[in-house]
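Bench notes, afternoon.
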Amino acid sequence: MRSRVLVVLRRLPLLVTLLVVVSTNSRCSNVAGSVGAGGGAGPCTTSPVGDDDSDDGGDDDSGSPCAPPDSDGINGGCYAFDLTVDDTTFSPIILKAQNLGQVTLHLTNMGTKPHDFVVGCIPVSYPGCPSSTCFPSAADIAPVAPGATATATFTVPNPEGIYTFRSDVAGDSTLEADGGMNGLWGQFVVQ
């Protein structure tokens, strides 16, 4: 009995990947994010690694050494996040999505001064490749006035990792000498 369970579990990532590919051009059913994000992020197309020419995530997904293998076997999907910022914090401070997923992020400023949303890069170490990978510029949101909302729609990059997001409006966040961050920041986990 145990060996049957292991066989099913080993095949599960392939099945999930096939389900993602089969759902191309369908309404998103795997929407993630904070409460209030709802179940309808609109039409979504997903692509397996190697088929996404619109990625804009700073990598080549066509099987080159600059596109690392996926650790969980799942790529793409649709994600909607309702993110708020005030003068002291983002909420939620951790966002999670699959690599190559399509994200719609709504940022609402509940503070008393403007705040923005910028996602940093992570270092990568693949011979002959760029030394870092970044979210596309479409992920950045310009300063949002108090009480206002702005939206960004973008494709999550590959490779997987933990990318730091922050508000880089003067006085909102600072990078410490030890690599730590103070102020308005959070983490975008790419799985």
